[in-house]
Amino acid sequence: MGHSPNDRPSPGSPAAAVGMVVASMASIQLGASLAKHLFPALGPSGTAALRLGIAAAVLGLVWRPDPRVLAKPGGRAVLAYGLSLGGMNLLIYAAMARIPLGVAMALEFTGPLAVALLGSRRPADFVWVGLAVAGIVLLTPLAGASAALDPVGVAFALAAGACWFAYIVAGRRAGGAVHGGTATALGMAVGALLALPFGLAHAGDARLSWGVLAAAGGVAVLSSVIPYSLEMAALTRLPAKTFGVLMSAEPALGALAGWVVLGEQLAAV
Known about the structure:
By secondary structure, the chain is mainly α. The protein contains 11 helices and no strands.
């Protein structure tokens, strides 16, 4: 995978960037587990739209981005970042409604895995990618129980993985072209606009109680505001392939969060 000057990592502590990725993954998995409790009231699309909308509002207040940035050089990367972000959230929530959280995260990880494979050159790189693949195989019931998985849910999770691939590539370019906070805030707004019609179609008549709004606000902070801000900072400090391999921990964290928060069972393996 070729790299433009904007694709090169910016100066900064790699250890700090790794810490950002780990904190992001933990936050987003906890938020995803809590979001599943909103599905009965809002549906997956309604939950995604409300979460992205609240997150966009919060990030807009914090960073106050100028929308005219989208018309300048780098604006196309920000737009692609936002569209991939919105699509990734809509699709993974649709998958989570049909298959266990850990399995959905494992299948979605095909996106970061593809980034890691395309950016790998040294034998050691492929060792790390191989370990990530082994983790996916262990988390996904490929033998016996795989027949019980909803094929539509599996398709949604794989499509979310394709969006995740685009999110990583576009996020690095957007973060290199404009200020990271501006890119995150505008990208979140674009993602929210993409999710809005789907959310209205599935949850337009839902009653938004204060409890539901408070829960959605918490999910927005845990699943969007915190992790996407941390990831944008990390993406400008780490090579894309390194970021992709680090994200291999996310399916494991998703399985753990599903077990602790949702009571989704894990096999001994």
